[in-house]
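Box 3.1 A note on notation
Throughout this textbook, protein chains are presented in two layers. The first layer is the amino acid sequence; the second is a token string describing backbone geometry. Keep the layers aligned when reading.
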Amino acid sequence: MKIINTCDKIKSVFSDGFSIDLWRKYAEEISKELPSKCEKDAKEYDFNKDVLPVLENALNNEKIDFVSRNFQTVIDTLNDNLSKLFDTEPDINIILYLGLCNGAGWATTLDGKDTVLLGIEKIIELDWGDETNMRALILHEIGHLWHKLNGNLYIPEYTKRRKGIAQLYCEGVAMLCEHILCGDDEFYHQNKDGWLDWCYKNENQIKREYLRRLDKKESVQDFFGDWCSYNGHSDVGYFLGCRFVEHLIKTHSLKDIANMKYRVLNKKFTEFANTVIESLRLEDYHKCSNIWNMESQPLAEKWRQEIVSEDRLVFVYKINGEFIGEGALVLDAGDADYTIPDKRVYVSRIIVKKEYRNRGIGSEILEYLIKKAKEMGFSEMTIGVDKDNINALHLYRKFGFTEVLFDGADEHGEYFKLIKKL
């Protein structure tokens, strides 16, 4: 891995201000290919209006030094992160340079070698020069290169639909790689002023609108790029892409996902976009009556009666309007055999129709219940699981639930009590 930091060069070359001729000479010293590559990418910009003010703002020694220091700090510990995805150190270049607003990060090829270009002018404009954001930015672009090395990064984009699917997919894989490498599955460097909370709360609307635009052959550019926005929020496509890939990884390995072809991705995204988890009005609960496996009919009837009460919140999982599964939270223990202290919520049921099991739907429902419990201010979640229900125990352990000593038993046999801190 080769690291090139041109910050000192930037300060000396442009000490009297920016000029395009000086820039071409500076860029050519990095690579003969770089000037034409950047200018071709930026040809649709209004240079004086869109590019020059950003460049002039970046040519500030204090700002450049701040970015340079944090870049070096991240680079010094980079291999500690990369080992989570790469067996050996990847053969790539990472270059911190002054571009023409070609992007804060750009995973590309330069002189025949995989390269991450980090545009200092955009990093400064977006205020991504601190260590945390710098690390995330670098890891995201390396995620793109991991995808190229391990799969199908480039999908032909000869229709608007193919382009929309390809962009969502590629950014989603890179976003998930970023989460793996930085060890935080909810980190988005775009998350400012409640951005992530807004995305989560509007996830159903976001994915339906994206699919609508694909179906109508409309542009999805609003979802990508800091200069664009969807409902006043930029880069929403990065969130949606990551959620799509998180949906896929419940039933596929990351390498399998990295090799998916357009037809598969198009089909799976259409299903994902038509998948909704929403709160169920109690008066409409009878519509779920076909969810249960009839092998457990007596238990299902008991559950159906218990759930229609004021102390439970029911969430249903639908694909194309069909009820597929559900989950519920108990907010008040009432006179049950267990007690629920303040700030603790109980998962009273997760169930999926028999023919839809082993597709990651139970995981998605549990993930949603955890998110809703956090939103409501609970700090602990509990559940009782039959000791012989191996699949359920595996699911809860995967989500961080731990068992506590419990001798409980009911008419269905012994069961474990599991707890998770939220």
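Residues 290-310, 333-340 have pLDDT under 50 and may be disordered. The CA atoms of residues 56 and 76 lie 29 Å apart.
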